[in-house]
Here is the input.
Amino acid sequence: MRTNIIVGIEIILLISMSFAISYTLHAEDSVAYDYNQSPKDLAFKIINHLFGKGIVSALDSSDLKNGVSTCLLSKNNKVCQEYPSSECGGKCTTACIPSSKSQVSACSVGTCVDPVEGICQPGSPKSACENDGGQWYNDPNGNIAQCKLGCCLLGDQASFITSQQCSRKSVLLGVTSNFKPEIGSEIECLALAKTQEEGACVYEQDFQKSCTFTTKASCLQKTGRADSFYPGLLCSNPALNTTCKKQARTACVEGKDEIYWFDSCGNRENIYDANKAQSWNEGKVLAKQDSCTLDAGKNLLAHQSSCGNCNYFLGSICGQKAGNQKLSDSSQNVVCKDLSCTDAQGKKRKNGESWCAYQGSIGVDEKNNRATDTPGSSHYREVCIDGVIQTEACADARREVCIESQTQTNYGKISSAACRANLWTQCSEYNTEVTGEGNARIASEKQRDNKCSQNPDCFVKKVDISDNFKFNLCAPRYPPGFDLSANSDSAEMVCGLASQTCTAIYVKKLFSGWKCEANCECEDAIFTEKMNDLCISLGDCGAKVNYNGQYRKNYQAYNAEKVPDSYIEGLKKYSATVTGQFADAGSYKQFYTSLGIPSDLGAAGKLKDQNEAALKAALVTSGSAGILVLAAYHAGIASSFGAGGAAIISKIPILSSLVGKSAGVSSAVADPTGEFGVAANPSIAAYGGAVAGASLGLAVTSLLIKFTGIGPGLDPYVTNSLLVAGAYSGAIIGANIGSGGTGIFGGLGASGSASLAFAWVIGVAIVLAIVIFKLLGIGKTKEVKVEFQCQPWQAPTGGKACKQCGKDGFPCTPYACHSLGQTCEFVNEGSGQEACIDNNPNDASPPVIHPLKKVLAEGYSYQDENENGVKLVGPEECIKAYTPVTFGVGLDEPGQCKYDVEHTQSYDDMEFYVGDRNLYIRNHSMAFTLPSLESLGLPGYEPSRKANYNMYIRCEDTNGNKNEKEYAINFCVKPGEDLTPPSISPGDYNEYVAYNATSVVASIYTSEPAECKWDTNDKEYDAMAYSWVCDSGFENQTFLGWKCSATLPINNDSTFSVRCSDQPWLNASTKRNENHESYPLTFKKSKIPLTITSLTPDNSTIIAGTDAVSVEVVAKVSGGADGTAKCSYKIDNYYVDFLDTLKSESRNVFNQFTPGAKVLAVKCEDRAGNRAERTARFSIELDSAAPEVTRVYEKSGSLVVITNEPARCSFVHFLNRTRDTCSFQFPEGEVLEGSDLIHTAPLEQLPYYIKCKDRFENIAGACSMIVQAKV
Amino acid sequence: MKRGQMAIWIILAIVLVGTMILFFTVERKVNTTQPEILSPELQVRQCTKEAVNSVLAQTLPHGGFVEPRNTKLYKGINISYLCDNIGFYKPCINQHPLLIKEMNAEIKEKITPELQTCFSIIDGDYASRNAELETGPLSFDVRLAPGRVYVDINRSMTITQRGSSRTFSSYQVEIPSPAYDLGSIASEIASQEAKYCYFEYVGYMLLYPSFRISKTALPDSTKIYTITDKKSGDAMNIAIRSCAIPQGI
Here is the structure.
């Protein structure tokens, strides 16, 4: 028996095990695969050198003629973009259109209106809009009737949107809408929602009286009965006899800031107050401004424990209690939460407050009159929002600057900040406007200085070293940063503005020897200091520290003393932030004026209330309204809007409901500036971004035309098109060399200084100047050229500091990373795992130098090449005198290279950079010209002995590894006679002469030192009557050669013959070479004066329906040089160029005109200097009033309606009483016949609820007329 | 006795092996518990909601599209350019002037396969219960609305089971989602950037505190805006390149 039992148990176990094992096997089998989720793709592409690629590219030479082409849809799916013509085909999915986008109909930029959603989109291309079913209007700014905004009330929510948007939302939500077009600002609209009358909506439910606390409109919709709504009463009011019991609990309400009581039915009651009876208010609604006060004096949360009247604008909102933040009634779980923040300096910041943060010193050191922003640093804006600080980076490399204003309020100082475009190019461009000679030049300089001072981003940099070496320059207050890897040419161009030469004059005294008589201070350290101060004020140039405090000297000074250590220490302190320092926002009026956009144009017809105009201008854009509102509330309003502003704001009574009684609407704070206008609101300046962009583009165009000489030879419109396509860099410089453009930038107004020389691509090095410096010393007077070369700032060698990027609390950017070391590389861009790493930490080898063959001209070659050097030979072995020679070296890695003509011990001992460039690049080249040795005038000189020369080169790589041994380039000068006469080139020659001109100051350039003459007839050189004044000293060579100037008489079209004779030191020797053919210099004098034949609008009134009006001003010219001109309009005391000019018709669109009388002074100037002026007077009237019905009568069975202006009217007869009868939308009604003043419809059943709208879509929120039966 | 024992063990062995074979060969359901077949309305709502939420989870981070074509890579996400200009100094060109309409169309396109699958499953469920089915073609419309997405589905389905018939023809599904509001804000940002090259997002947040907006400027002058609905946590990213300023000249 026992055995049987055991066997039975074993059998049961075995059978059970079979199921168990089977299940286990099954479970393992099914575990696997969750097919609903796919694995994340974790492979990130490491993008090298993303920055800079694909945006700026070199051009084909044909682009300079053909400009840009437009692509309707690019291969990367960009709509309506411009590309340089040579690139467009490869980037476009369709055939490119050979013109700029503004000329292509499909890409015309206008406003797209979604007919269903009612959303307006300015800046929309026609094709993209219409292809998707949108309605396109030819106004790019949205200033059309369809985009007019009004207040849409949907239940207890408000939105400041278009009428169609309101209708659409109403349909989507199934809620009756109430559109109020008369509400003109977002603030008013939002405030309106908060002031809608609420009350108890009582109705029967399950044979009991139930209640819902809501608005009248909602109650009507719910119950269908107007008498079920009890305005101003709570549902718990005993008089209503409902089932709802008062003050059952507290809670937050979505969309509201405060803590509310709720009754037992779940209806909202009044704002929480520890004094319950006070809060309940006998069962009546208690307005916010009559409820308890949360703040006391400067303490915004003084009564946090007892009052639930939170205010988001003042930094509190209903939320869950936490820590010390709680109500004194412990049974309540909510409290008015503090939304303030504490910044990095420990300062308390209020909700919505924004302020600037910087990575070092910014702006101008007034004591030393120099700019202080450091390489690698950018500006940041920090914002306190909901108790958290958000950091927003302005565009790096100081392409944007952070500006801030501080407003004194009852609650302390409130900061408001914004990032806006840095107008630095305007500063440089102002310098090009200095023209003329003598007094005219002085006046021109003074005007430049005034303009410079008025621009908030510029300052007048004064250089005053000696009596004959002083000048002013307009420099950027926040100098820009550069990206040397993408665009080193522009860096060299900008920095080169501070490369100057000062000539100290020595006179040999009889007993005392050589004594300095003029510009002696230039040889002192003060010269180097002052010039470096100028250099660092232009951009990332010169000797300065980066934001991490690393110092690097990036200038060359010849024959000048070194700067003392104390000077360098003074520079080093700029890497430290200065507590409390910020870029002042200034007056927005000043900012816009510098861009040519005034808040009010002209002097005629001043507005009655200038503050109102400023307020209207400020409130046009909804986005900025928030900041304004905040500033207004905290400031007691007045100081934000100027004196008297309180009076303006108080006309908007519902605003007070937003803040309650504590806002102090009536507390006027005097505007410290004493002038009208919305002072110091940074976001308003930031809203000038589009205008700033256009102005910057124009300034850069002007600069490039001046720098490269491309403009005079090219349609300026093409230049501008190329510029805005962003593709100008390398090819323009290359083309310039080919076309022989000037490349010279003058007009610094320096007394006694030579013309500016600046680093160029190939790099002209005056080799023999070095020889002269070393050998001169004879004669009765001598000049010592003290030269300062300002170079782009280079990061320190190596990459030890790469890991510091981002450690200062600001995000690491490529600009910051590259400033920390030459081998620092920014990787993983766009992946979210960006880092700054040392890309070559183990490199210990200096660069290997080899000769650069590709820069050699035909017939030249290198011989005897070995690791120690090479010999450069010409077609006849030795190089002939006056032959321009180009040579260079190549490296196996990027590096800097220096040279000297004498042996030196190390790289650091060498003085001169190859090609005058301090860039870390692989290929270094330079060009030079050797004169004949006789020109040195050295007695006893043996030409054959001095024929051979060596030039010694060393290089340093990015890790600081330097060549120990010199690399020698050997060449020789073939002594011999100069048999070639000088060649003549026109330089910056303008063939057009003004109508009333009687003479012209002309310049020519010769290829060697020469003397030149001119005459009106073609004659031999000696027979010519008149001479040019030539800078024939060998050291006066410029990039174009040696300059000669003369004043030529002009009657009509004139042609002058010019001939030159070289080697002026030979005096009357027959060895001199003269031109046998004359160089013709032709001038075309304008036959008729330049006139502005038409200027529109003028003597007219523009009636518009929108607050901000777009007005296009067109100036037509004729006569002058060629019937085209550059036109500009006057703002305050200076002129701003039309955005579309340099044609026979100049155009400028003003898209933010406010109503009023306008006076616009315009002047035009053509290429010959002919000028014309004209003033336009016009006015803008705003028709924002809906048409009114003046008369209604019956005639022959028809209803006749008369309006006071041309209008269209529609009507409804009778509506379901569940909605407000006049809340119907215009399209919902039947349209009356007639579109002028008289409108008719068949007279059927009364009543008629009529609405009328004018051509500007002005329509009354309520009915224009209700026609009822006579009682 | 021994033969008897042997026989018992052999029988047991046969039973054991047979059980194991049966266990693996008999079709078994994935879920251990067989859910009840929901009524078509509930099932349609459920799968529509899942489909829409799934698509929204893909579109919103990318700027309103599942696979946007003109994009900027940021934190590993390809974000659509709503307003773009590859050049410098000039305002951007609106690339999606009818964004809400495009978002509607995108959602509709992407949920179509899901809805078709959903109805196939429903049909199959009924078929498996021996019900007779008569169905019509599927058509539907998607509308983004403030705070929700509406999907209006039309598909007639007549189910006959045990002698009685029921007909279902249309379903209106309402899915809570801030997509419309996020899209509207995105459109507003694009609009102001096209007009002013600037959007005051802080001021906007103060006026509309239920949304959080952040702005990130990238080195190539692209701005990434992230708009977050605080209540749901849903976020939409958009890219803008307007009035770009180059470094240097």
User: Anything to note?
Assistant: Residues 1189-1267 of chain A form a domain with the Immunoglobulin-like fold (CATH 2.60.40). The mean pLDDT of chain A is 78. Chain A touches chain B through 124 residues (CB under 8 Å).
